[in-house]
Amino acid sequence: MKTKLASCLLIAILVILALSPCVAGEHFMLPPDANPILQVEKPTPVPQPRGRHLTVVATAYTPFEPGMTSGTGLAYDGRPAIPFKTLAVDPKVIPLGSRVFIPQYGWFLAHDTGSAIKGPRIDLCLETDHEMVHFGVRKMEIYVVPPDTPYRMAW
To answer: What gap in Å lies between CA 106 and CA 148, rounded to an integer?
Structure first.
């Protein structure tokens, strides 16, 4: 009997301790002038580039020999293919020299082509074979800013 009474008393004390901040007004109290319905914060919009929006199939490549992490991999226009900056495109879809914004990766420059890059496809230049294989084939949303667009107009 004493054990049952002690258990009930212990539970009652724990409940009182748990609720005491609410009763004392320390938690869950809104200021008198607060209107929670009107104070819902809207997310701050992220600026989107003003380029042409495209949905593309994306793959990846490395500009180096297999197993190497440096070298002289050159893009179609003769410039070095720079990992995470160079993009291979079909020039009929994305003009060479265009700046391309990929939301997951940032800005790339379209200055390479590839025999398998036909239509709405892109090939991202990555640094290692592991990154390339891990990237696989993905459907992505991109924004294309033509080469003749002033840089300040890209955003």
So the answer is: 20
Residue 44: inside a domain: no
Question: CB-based contacts of 95: which residues, under 8 Å, 6+ apart?
Answer: 110, 146, 147
Please check whether residue 25 lies inside any domain of the structure.
no
Is residue 9's pLDDT more than 80?
A: no
What domain count does the chain have? 1
Note the pLDDT tens digit of each residue in 48-57: 556 789 999 9
> What pLDDT, on the 0 to 100 scale, is given for residue 155?
46
Assign residue 98 the CATH number of its domain.
2.40.40.10
- Domain membership of residue 94 (yes or no) is yes
Q: Where are the beta strands (DSSP E) in 2-147?
A: 52-61, 86-89, 99-102, 106-112, 121-125, 138-145
Whether this prediction's pTM lies above 0.70 is answered by: no
Structure tokens that stand for 83 in this block:
């990992």
Q: 65 and 71 in contact (C-beta within 8 Å)?
A: yes
First CA to last CA distance, the chain: 76
Range of the domain at 141: 52-154
What are φ and ψ of residue 111, in 5° steps?
-140, 30
